[in-house]
Amino acid sequence: MPLIKHGAESDDPWDYVEDETDLSDGGYFTVRLSRFLAEAPTLSDRNTRVGVRLASDDNVEELVPYLQQIQLIEIDFPKYTDGRGYSQAQLLRRRYGYEGELRAVGHVLRDQIFYMNRSGIDAYDTARADLPSVLEALKEFSAVYQPGAGGQVPAFRKRHGS
After folding, report:
1. Which domains does the chain have, with CATH numbers?
2. Which tens digits make up the pLDDT trace of 10-67?
3. Residue from 74, 144, 80, 72 nearest 112 by CA
4. CA-to-CA distance for 97 and 117, rounded, in angstroms?
5. What beta strand segments (E) does 17-100 contain?
6. Bridge pairing between strands 72-77 and 49-54
7. Which stretch of DSSP H or E encloses residue 156?
């Protein structure tokens, strides 16, 4: 699947490692939240980069003590109708101040890209949308009405200068 971030297709050095698979000594890898929490002390001793993949029913608050050491958080969208990943992204960016990469994985559709970006997601691992479609989706709306983690100033603040 192509990885799209910073307005371009990008090589992806990260590998997702299933729970029952041993971790290599080097490289970049992501693991499920439960595995990360169980192995956090030993993972921090490795000479590797560690990321976490959040399932839609994972509690983001469990990651808060580790946010400074995590370079990548993948948010899994298991199906089009499951919007819990948007809330996870908003919490990570706006409430907990996570500044690393937030990547949408799973069932990522072109129609969701704008809203994912508004929630704070900045990378998209998708086979369902090509680069021109993603770039088009990010510019789909010129104004927003609610504050979000994506950085756009809401229309009412522009209008009233606040």
Report:
1. 3-160 (3.20.20)
2. 888 999 999 888 877 778 899 999 999 998 888 777 767 889 999 999 999 999 999 9
3. 80
4. 16
5. 28-32, 49-54, 72-77
6. parallel
7. helix 155-160
Q: Assign 35 to helix, strand or coil.
A: helix
Q: Which two tokens stand for residue 22?
A: 């041993």
Residue 144 phi, psi (nearest 5): -125, 155
72 conformational bin, left if phi > 0, alpha if psi -120 to 50, beta if neither: beta
131, 4 Cβ separation under 8 angstroms: yes
What's the token pair of residue 56?
Answer: 């839609």
In degrees, to the nearest 5, what angle opens at C-alpha 60 toward C-alphas 22 and 137? 95
Q: Which DSSP symbol is given to 122?
A: -
Beta-carbon contacts of 52 under 8 Å, excluding residues fewer than 6 positions away, are 30, 31, 32, 33, 36, 63, 70, 72, 73, 74
